[in-house]
Amino acid sequence: MGIRMFLLIAFMWVLIGCNAQNDSREHNDKLKSQSIVTIKEAAIKGQMKGMEVPLKSTYSKVVEVYGEPKEISNEECWTYSHDHPKTKANFYFNHDSCANGLNVLKPEAIVNKISVPVESLDIQMTAEDVKLALGKPNKEFWDEAYDGYYLIYELDQSQLVFLAKEKTDPINISRVQVITNKLKE
To answer: 162 in a domain, yes or no?
Structure first.
């Protein structure tokens, strides 16, 4: 009788532990989903979650809030500032560096894209997490030329982009971007 009772108690203990783990996992999944929805809600307003400077701000406002960047670079005719002392975000501007001087920004240049590493959002997420929280994206693809996997959600005034830089299973999102939708301005 003692061994049977011990086995029954051990079995129930394992069962309770498994249920607690499942409950904890479900709770964490709900929190992750809510965080992703919050990112989308901010993007609808032209903002990146946790950032003080929204899209359509000026370069001088970015510098005022986040400090002088260590560097201004260019990427396919997009000029962007990065390595600001108070943020890990990259701010892209309406300045066309292919037409004008490279890596030069005027104070009145307008932010049209904000890109942040996923760590700055205090969340780790996969492409599947994003799709579970937000539904099917408007566009989803691997871009070999730019070496990345993209989930793009079209919003009213902007796009919300989730980017993975590495082919992994599951696909781990590494950056999140909000971009002004120029076609609807």
So the answer is: yes
CA-nearest of 112, 53, 108, 43 to 77 is 112
Predicted confidence (pLDDT) per residue in 81-123, tens digit: 899 999 999 999 986 556 555 667 889 989 999 999 999 998 8
Taking residue 145's Cβ as centre, other Cβ atoms within 10 Å add up to 5
Residue 166 CB neighbour total at 10 angstroms: 10
DSSP line for 71-83: EEEEETTEEEEE-
d(CA 112, CA 115): 10
Domain of residue 96, residue span: 30-184
The residue assigned the tokens 């108690």 is 9
Residue 18 located in a structural domain: no
Count of structural domains, the chain:
1
Query: Cα angle at 5 between 4 and 6, to 5 degrees?
Result: 90
Within a domain: 19? no
Separation CA 90–CA 69 (nearest Å): 10
102 close to 93: Cβ distance less than 8 angstroms = no
Furthest CA-CA distance within the chain? 87
Q: pTM of the predicted model, to two decimals? A: 0.81
